[in-house]
Amino acid sequence: MPISRRILLTTLGIGAVPPALAALLGRARPADAASPASDPAWRLSDSAWRERLSPESYAVLRREATEAPFSSALNQEKRPGTYLCAGCGLPLFSSQAKYDSGTGWPSFFAALPESIGSKRDFKLIVPRTEYHCRRCGGHQGHVFNDGPRPTGKRYCNNGVALTFIPSDS
Ligand SMILES: [Zn+2]
What is the number of structural domains in the chain? Predict the structure, then answer.
């Protein structure tokens, strides 16, 4: 069992895990792995990713960490432009879908077509929908159903997993 999960279970006071819960946790993906890359050219080794990324981006993209809220300058970014995966440069979001959710993370109501993949995760026990860059598999954030119209979705994204390119650049 990964240490983080053991600590979580201990914290919750459920060191002796009931079999049903153990089965549920057993189905969850390990907490420290990104999703598979759809593009073979982006199936890089862990050390190659470490070399390529800043420590903060590596932790989010490759280890599914979550950055501290209100820590990203992209929260305040309001210029027209495109948000790319910080891992491989694939365009993921348009500024036209960005809005201020008040959560402290850059938020979007839609992703660009064919740009992301998703999976359920159980890191907080309650199921959530994780999403990642379809091309390199790098973790981006979680999507919730409390977003604005027209989609009702809230893509809650880590700023360090994105690179912003203003359209006038
Ligand atoms: Zn990517």
Answer: 2
131 φ, ψ (degrees, to nearest 5): -135, 155
Instruction: Please indicate whether residue 156 is annotated as part of the active site.
Output: yes
Q: Please indicate, yes or no, whether residues 154 and 92 belong to a single structural domain of this protein.
A: yes
Report every protein residue that has its C-beta within 5 angstroms of ion ligand 1: 85, 87-88, 90, 133, 135-136, 138
Of 78, 58, 60, nearest to 68 (Cα)?
60
77 conformational bin, left if phi > 0, alpha if psi -120 to 50, beta if neither = beta
| Whole-prediction pTM | 0.79
Q: What is the mean pLDDT of each run of 10 residues along the chain (169 residues)?
A: 46 45 43 80 96 98 97 97 98 98 98 95 83 98 96 98 93
In the sheet that holds 162-166, the strands lie side by side as 91-94, 81-85, 162-166
Residues 49 and 21 in one domain: no
CB 161, CB 115: distance < 8 Å: no
**What CATH number should be reported for the domain holding residue 60?**
2.170.150.20
Asked if 159 and 71 count as a contact pair (C-beta separation under 8 A), the reply is: yes
